[in-house]
Design goal:
Blueprint (H helix, E strand, L loop, with lengths): L13 H8 L8 E11 L3 E9 L7 E6 L9 H14 L10 E6 L5 E6 L7 E2 L8 H17 L6 H4 L12 H8 L1 H8 L2 H4 L8 H15 L4 E4 L8 E3 L5 E3 L5 E4 L1 H11 L2 H21 L7 H10 L1 H9 L8 H17 L2 H5 L2
Protein name: Aminoglycoside phosphotransferase domain-containing protein
Organism: Sphingopyxis panaciterrulae
InterPro entries: Kinase-like_dom_sf (IPR011009)
Length: 349
Amino acid sequence: MRVRVPETLAGITADWLEKALAPRFPGVRIAHVEPVDVLHGACTKIRLAVRGDHPGLPPTMLMKAGFEPHSPAMRKMHVNEYHAYRDLMPTVGLNVPDCLCAAMDDDGRALVILEDLCLRDVRFLSLQQPIDFDLAKGFLAGLAKLHARWWDAPELDRAFAWVPGTGEAAMDHYFTLLLTPGHFEAYATAPRGAAMPRMLLDPPRIRAAHAAMRQAQKAQARVINHGDMHLGNLYVDADGTPGFLDAQPRLGAWSIDVSYFLIAGLDLVDRRRWEGALLAHYLSCLRAEGVDPPSFDDAWAAYRRDVVWGLLIWMLNGSHFQTEANNTAAATRFAMAMVDLDSFGALGV
């Protein structure tokens, strides 16, 4: 919907919220709205306490908006999430939060208002608590459902013109940091960089690996990827059902999601033991969804190549987006996967 998106938290008034929620709760009158929790990061997450006269109106809801100093530079990310909840998630049947409002204004500012998952007692996952084999299988089944829905569909470019790809232009934030020596040095000397093998702190080689990955992906099926499948964007319902948060959809090969999820989500030792079996499980889930999946050998080759995608992101992820502890945990998992799987060798760089 088109509604003026506030520039600050002070703009979240009862009158504004009435307009924002009207399509979902027709005729609603909001008597009171109050922020009760605010979490700062890549975006601003605000839990709102709400009183109104509509019988379906929940007492609390979660708003994701751009009220941070860096938010103007993150506008594309906010718009991508707006489209994810409005245009993608309703088509795929995943367990995701109910979206009460997805709003974007004429200036390109966007926000979403979601159900408060705490009201249904979900368990939020954390990068610092890697998951077990069975839970990883459950999330891969959901990922296969997402990928299968638009697997190599001829209408992908038309139906999802808003979805960014995986090229340098679509990743300009990361490539600017990678290719600017002063910026890169700050990350290379941070705890995450200090924990990495020296061979990986090589911007020209990482850039060449990314280009080789993109070239290899031309032979793969294209899908709509979740785009940010780390544990901080996942949850589990009280009955054990895996749930998906905070998608940043990407149009590209299925393997960027799978490698990103498994490497970021598993303990290093467990990943070495389980990655083959879990990749085979993902392929079997694709088949169950009606897709003719790639062979295991082809999938394994893609998995090895695409480790560089996650390395690029977590090596250069801002500490104002994730804590340095989270960045270090994820970056070192990708660094060791690059070594274990000889990803540079697989990419020929």
